[in-house]
């Protein structure tokens, strides 16, 4: 009964308030094109539109041509990397560009908050700061890194929310339910949406009613224009929850999304990490593979590759044909299951993946690997928080590791502390007793056109 009555509500809502907010994909394409033409033509007068302010926050290099963006990033990386030891004494190769520079994101998370017009049920990205209490949510339709499918889903979610009887959850302690939405897409155009919801004091039965309305909207209502392949729902009272803390509930469609990189297929669960730019991920993984296991006619490959913070197994799996054995370690259980599945999916028999925190797993694993024949290479790709000191210690104090590849999306943050701890003279007080590594080569790879960020692949040897 309730589902029928909600359908009546959204039908009425569509008539009165949403015909302009749920544009067809073609309409959005022309909107983006028009905005881009406008910003090129309009003189710089200091009065920025909301779209410009958002673009300046999210994609601050959007006014520059791509070549100029790459030059800036190259220089910036060189400055950062010179801080490892005070001067830049190793080569930094030219930044590798992203094969695709527009609409490249395969994952976007849209917030919910007050819009420019004061409507609290607005889906988009923040302009302003919490400190200044001037947060405004602005639609991301015009952002150059955003695919149209993502903004279409965001628009539809906004439309759904505006028809829902429930309030949005803007501040956790101020009540409200509807929270952000994550959209994942792949190269084939498959689309997964994950809606985050604060249950507050609703009973499970009451929550079920709203879940049913959400499914109805996206499968039979106006949201069906998004052609969602998967719709997930996560109830959470925290900013971020893993699947173990609060399960990702599949409300509709397929439980996974699949991506293909360097000829390997990857299954990706709702809460598993995958590089946000699929085409540039190919460039990144090729670079990482070549630095981990150089493959020349003269050189024999083999040995063991330790893939620390392996996510769904992408680095280890793409390098696996060149080594005898891959051992991956990953915190998120769903990602570890994906990694094991991905090895089987690609008929790769020499990969194993261990769930857990690297700082807990690695020290014990190292003693078993001491006797591993054929050499040991490590590749680490931690999140922005960098590696735990125990991981750095375990890697440094394992004499079999002569080659270590560090992949970082933020080398000027916590990763810099890791670089220094890998390269400083032995320091028994801090239990850094193994020989020091030296950085010998760096390769920046641009995965994030229009933003100041890029990945850097750093080779350390000893
Ligand atoms: C930047 S992602 C890289 C994933 C993978 N290498 C890839 O390229 O797809 C970082 C990964 O580290 C994992 N992670 C974060 N902290 C960790 C820890 N303490 N121990 C093990 N894995 C961790 C995250 O869950 C995430 O999957």
UniProtKB/TrEMBL annotation:
Its EC number is 2.1.1.35. It comes from the Eukaryota. One of its GO terms (molecular function) is tRNA (uracil(54)-C5)-methyltransferase activity, S-adenosyl methionine-dependent. It holds the Pfam family tRNA_U5-meth_tr. It catalyses: uridine(54) in tRNA + S-adenosyl-L-methionine = 5-methyluridine(54) in tRNA + S-adenosyl-L-homocysteine + H(+). Gene3D superfamilies: 2.40.50.1070, Vaccinia Virus protein VP39. SUPFAM superfamilies: S-adenosyl-L-methionine-dependent methyltransferases. S-adenosyl-L-methionine binds at residues 275, 330, 381. Keywords: Methyltransferase, S-adenosyl-L-methionine, Transferase. It is an enzyme of class 2 (transferase). The active site is at residue 409. GO terms for biological process: methylation; RNA processing. Belongs to the class I-like SAM-binding methyltransferase superfamily. RNA M5U methyltransferase family. This is tRNA (uracil(54)-C(5))-methyltransferase. The lineage of its organism: Eukaryota, Metazoa, Chordata, Craniata, Vertebrata. The gene is TRMT2B.
